[in-house]
Amino acid sequence: MSFDFKGISLRVGATFFFALMVLFIKLLSDEIPVGQVVFFRSAFALIPLVLFLMWTRDFPSGLKTKRPGRHIVRCFLGCLAMFASFASLKYLPMSHASIIGYMAPVLAVVLAAVLLKEAVSNVRWFGVLFGFLGMLVLILPTAASAEFDAEYLTGVGLALAMAILTAGAKIQIRSLALTENAGAIAFYFALTCTVAGLATLPFDWVLPSWELLGLLICTGFSGGIAHILMTLSYQYSEISKLATFEYLSLVFAVIADGLFFDIIPEAAFYLAAACIICATLVVALNDRSARGQPVPR
């Protein structure tokens, strides 16, 4: 199995678990404040992360680092992105928040080329941009009818901030993954967000029902698994090649809509899905310029 195939498989798995996490957060968005969701999502993510480190025999030794500065920057950017992402769902429809969030892979490719000096082939640019076109095909008919009131603009600002912060965090992960333990990168991030979420306790936390508590816990577990898979994927392939596969979250989201909310996709979805699937296949199978080149680890 090639490094790229391993990286792509891990990234697809991470995308699925992130989509599952977003589903749980959406179900909680009208009942639980953002800071409380961040706490549970992060605190319970620590459980699979620690189990992962124990399984790989890297706990606690795997938490040692010679690059604390990089971890701090990664955790700071990622934590801000998490708050912004969860908060944007309060003001925006999921479709609008998603299309703005999909700017992150495009920004990550640009930052990877500028900061990490990664060679970004024309095929990879095509994959990312064609995938983004698929998002536009699906979302623009709905976005065109949106009312641009103050709350909507607040949501747009939060979603844009999330996209920029996420792109910056991805670059830090890629750099850290070359020398640091994958579980440690995710562990320190979850720990940072746990503390940040707990800091909001005096403000507007609520006592959740058993059902909501279950959703909060599942949010953490799915987020922890997703972070492990995502961080591992960067050890086998480059950010610019994996960015396209984030668009598969659209497919997972539509399946969740059908199963949980009885929402049937309109015709635009099938055209968008065709664009996204085409983009992923092109990047996975036809990027011959990078084939055979070892990935630094």
Automatic annotation (TrEMBL):
Please indicate which superkingdom the organism of origin belongs to. Answer: Bacteria
**Any keyword Protease?**
no
Alphabetic keyword roster: Membrane, Transmembrane, Transmembrane helix
**Domain EamA, chain residue ranges per copy:** 6-139
Where, subcellularly, is it found? Membrane
Which is an annotated Pfam family here? Answer: EamA
Matching SUPFAM superfamilies, A to Z?
Answer: Multidrug resistance efflux transporter EmrE
Q: Predominant location of this chain?
A: membrane
Bilayer topology term: Multi-pass membrane protein
Gene3D superfamilies per record: 1.10.3730.20
TM segment ranges: 12-28, 34-55, 75-93, 99-116, 123-146, 152-173, 185-206, 212-232, 244-261, 267-285
Q: Which family does it belong to?
A: Belongs to the drug/metabolite transporter (DMT) superfamily. 10 TMS drug/metabolite exporter (DME) (TC 2.A.7.3) family.
Name the UniProt record assigns to this protein = DMT family transporter
The species this protein belongs to is Roseibium algae
